[in-house]
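Exercise 7.
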Amino acid sequence: MKEYLAAQPSVVNFLASVARLVDVSVEEYPRLGYEHLTVCFGCTGGWHRSVYCAEWMCARLREKGCDVTLQHVALEQAEAL
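Solution. The predicted structure, written as tokens, is:
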């Protein structure tokens, strides 16, 4: 599934747009005195696209040196059932 999503132009374009938006916040937040930023992804099922996007963004932010906590809410709720 990961390879499939990574090859979809709509997913690639979406993540590029989100990355630009998040980058602005990551760069500005320290200057403004903020210490936390929350980025959330959702989709109809919460099992594929949103998981992929969240993990992609997490890896990208970690590469930039950010301390990231990743939480998959829908997956955690499903596992609790």
